[in-house]
Hints:
Shape: elongated
Number of helices: 13
Radius of gyration: 32 Å
Strand content: 15-25%
Amino acid sequence: MDASLLTKDLFILTVFKVLRQNLARTLFALSGISLGIASLVFIVAAIEGSNQNAQNIIQLLGPNSIFVRSGFGDKNSVRRLTYRLNVQDFRALKQVYGIRSAAFLMLKQKRISVGAEARNAYTVSAMKDFLNVFDYRLKTGRFFRLDEYSSFPKICIIGTELSRFFFGDTDPVGKTIKISKTSFRIIGVFAPKGKLPSGKSLDDRLIIPINTYRKFIEPEYKRLFAIKLKLAKDMDYDYVVSQVKEVLSLRHKKDDYVIVTPETVRKFLNIFNMTLSLYLGLASLIALFISGFVMSNIFAINVRVRAWEIGIRRALGATRDAIIVQFMAEALTISLMGAVLGSLLGFLAIWWITPLLKIPTVFPMKSLFLAICFSSATGLISVWMPARSAAYLNMVHALKSRL
C-alpha cells in the first residue's frame, strides 16, 4: 500500500465529508457507541468505588474486630425505633472466649453551639475502653483520665469538622463549647476518621465521659446503639464470631441485631459488583452491538453511494488496501468521538449517581483506556466487511455508476 495516500488532502477531507453528508446516521451510530461506553465507564467507577468503600469499612472495623449493631426488631414489632441491644448483652459478649476488649456505643444528636454559631451533631458516650476499642487517635490535646470516667467532669473531645466549623484553624483545646445549654471544656481533638458508608461524617462528633453522658445527655441509659469487640491475638476469628452469634441468638430474635465482619462486607461487595456488572454490562454490550450494526449498515450504504468516488480513486492508482484504510479511518473517527463523548457521559453519571448509591466517587483513568479499546474494536469490526467490499468493487462498474 502507498502510505503517501494517507497524507493526501483527499484522504482527510473524505473522512469528514462522509461523516457530514451522513450526519443523521452518523449521529445515530455515535449515540449508540456513546451510551455503551458511558455504561462501561460507570461500571468501572462503581466497582472501584464499592471496593474502596469496602476497604474503608474494613479499616473502620479494625483488624480482628467484630461490630454488632442494634437492629429495630422485625416488621411486626410495636416499637421498631427502639434499639434492641442493652448493657446485659454487652456484659455477656465481653465474656465470650477470645474477646480481649470490648466497648459499647451510645450516641444522641444534640444542639452544639459556641457563641452565636450553632449546629446539630452527635454526642457520644465514652466508657473506659471506648477510645481504644473504636481506634480513636488524638490530633491535639489529651484523652480522658481514668478518674474522669467515674466522676462527672464537663469535658469533651471533639472531631476535626466541629473544630473547623467553630474555631477555624485555631487550636480549640481549653476553649468552651455548649451541648444544649450546658458548657463543656474541650480537652482534645481526635484525628480524622472519615465517613460511614451512609455518607455521614465520623468527624462531626463530640465525645464525653460515660457518667457525664448519663447525667447531662441520657439519664435512662438502657439501650445501646452498637457494641464493638476486639479479639485476643492468635484467636480463630471464625470461631469467635460463631460464639458471638450463639450468645446473641439466645438473647434476641434475628432482626434485633446485625453482626458486621470483614467477611460480611466482602460478601455484600461481591453481590453488589455482580449485580451492577450484570445489568450495566448487558446494557453496555447491547448498546455497542446496536451501534456496530448501525455502523455496518451505514458503511454498506456508503459503498453503493460512493461507488463512483471509489472507482476514480482506483483508476488514479489507489490500491485495495488504501480503500480499506479509508473506510476504516472513517469508522475509527466515529469510534474515537464516541469514546470521548461516552467517557464524558460516564463521568457525569459517576458524579451524579454514585453519591445516591452511597459509594465513593471515583474517576478511574483506566476506564478511558477501556473506552478507546472497546469503541475502536466496535467500529473496526463492524466496518471491516463493508470496507472490504468497497476495495473489491469492479472498477468499470463503479465508474459507470454516475452515467
